[in-house]
From TrEMBL:
It comes from Methanocaldococcus infernus (strain DSM 11812 / JCM 15783 / ME). PANTHER family: BRANCHED-CHAIN AMINO ACID TRANSPORT ATP-BINDING PROTEIN LIVF-RELATED, HIGH-AFFINITY BRANCHED-CHAIN AMINO ACID TRANSPORT ATP-BINDING PROTEIN LIVF. Gene3D superfamilies: P-loop containing nucleotide triphosphate hydrolases (3.40.50.300). Residues 2-234 form the ABC transporter domain. Belongs to the ABC transporter superfamily. Keywords: Amino-acid transport, ATP-binding, Nucleotide-binding, Transport. SUPFAM superfamilies: P-loop containing nucleoside triphosphate hydrolases. GO terms for biological process: L-amino acid transport. The lineage of its organism: Archaea, Methanobacteriati, Methanobacteriota, Methanomada group, Methanococci. GO terms for molecular function: ATP binding; ATP hydrolysis activity; branched-chain amino acid transmembrane transporter activity. This is ABC transporter related protein. It comes from the Archaea.
Length: 237
C-alpha cells in the first residue's frame, strides 16, 4: 500500500531519518516502536508531507507521492492523526464529524457519520458537546471517527494511547483492530506502549537514531533480542 524507499528526511538542514526502507501493507497494522527521539513521529509526518525530504521515495498505490502536499494526501485517503490538536476543540463533536466529510454529498455524509458512530457508539451521547471538553480518550475516539467519515484507506496514528489509563488504552487498541478487521483500513501506528502495540500488529519496525534497526512480522520483532533490550531500557539513543 505504501512503499518507502531509501527515505532521508528532517527539518530544514537537520536530518532525522536516514535511508529508511519500509512497507505499509494493505489492511494490516504496522507499528513503529523505538526510543524517544528516534524519529518515529518524524516518519509519520514525513509520509504525510510535513517535513523536508532529501532523497527518498514514498510510493502509494503505485504513485510517487513524496512531493504531494498534505491536503492532497488527505484526499487520496491518507489520514494522519497527530498526538495533539487532532480535533477542532471549539466545535461540537457533531460539527467535527460533519467537517471531516465536508466534501461528501449530504446523503453520503449522513451514512458515513452513522458508520463512524457504529464503531464509536461512545460518541452518540456526546454529539452536542464541544470537542475541547472531551476526555483524552473521547477525543481520540472522535479523531478516529473523523477518519472513518473521511473514508480513509490509511490511518496513521501517533501515540493514540498517550496519557490514557491502561484500561482505556486497551479500548483504543481494540478499536484499531476493529478498524482493520471490519473496515479494511490500513493502519500505521507509532506507540510508546510498544509491547502491547506489537501484540495487536501484523508487522513491526524498530527505529533507533533515525534508522530501521529491526523489522519483520510483529511477533518476530517482539521476540527479538534487540527489542527485548530496548524494552528493558538498554538500547541507546
Ligand atoms: N519541528 C521540529 N524541528 C526540529 N527538530 C525536530 C522537530 N520535531 C522533532 N524534532 C527532532 O527530531 C528528532 C526525532 O523526533 P521524533 O519526534 O520524530 O522522535 P520520536 O521517536 O517520535 O520520539 P518520541 O517517542 O519522544 O515521541 C528529535 O531529536 C527531535 O528533537
Amino acid at each position: 500500500m505504501i512503499d518507502v524507499k531509501n527515505l532521508n528526511a528532517g527539518y530544514g538542514k537537520l536530518q532525522i531519518l536516514f535511508d529508511v526502507n519500509a512497507k505499509i501493507r494493505e489492511r494490516k497494522i504496522t507499528t513503529i516502536v523505538g526510543p524517544n527521539g528516534s524519529g518515529k513521529s518524524t516518519f509519520l509526518k514525513t509520509l504525510f508531507g510535513l517535513t523536508t525530504i532529501y532523497p527518498g521515495e514514498i510510493i502509494y498505490k503505485n504513485k510517487n507521492i513524496e512531493k504531494v502536499p498534505p491536503y492532497k494526501k488527505a484526499r487520496m485517503g491518507i489520514a494522519f492523526l497527530p498526538q495533539t490538536n487532532n480535533v477542532f476543540s471549539n466545535l461540537t463533536v457533531e460539527e467535527n464529524l460533519k467537517i471531516a466529510g465536508y466534501i461528501l454529498p449530504k446523503e453520503k455524509l449522513k451514512e458515513r457519520i452513522e458508520l463512524a458512530l457504529n464503531v464509536f457508539p461512545e460518541l452518540r451521547d456526546l454529539l452536542k458537546r464541544k470537542a475541547g471538553s472531551l476526555s483524552g480518550g473521547q477525543r481520540q475516539f472522535l479523531a478516529m471517527a473523523m477518519a472513518i467519515v473521511r473514508d480513509a484507506n490509511v490511518l496513521m496514528l501517533d501515540e493514540p494511547t498517550a496519557q490514557l489509563s491502561p484500561k482505556l488504552a486497551e479500548v483504543i487498541f481494540s478499536k484499531i483492530t476493529e478498524m482493520r478487521d471490519e473496515y479494511g483500513i490500513t493502519v500505521l501506528l507509532v506507540e510508546q506502549n510498544a509491547k502491547r502495540a506489537l501484540e495487536i500488529s501484523d508487522f513491526g519496525y524498530m527505529f533507533v537514531s533515525g534508522r530501521v534497526a529491526l523489522e519483520g512480522k510483529a511477533e518476530d520483532v517482539l521476540n527479538h533480542e534487540k527489542f527485548k533490550e530496548y524494552s528493558l531500557g538498554i538500547t541507546a539513543l
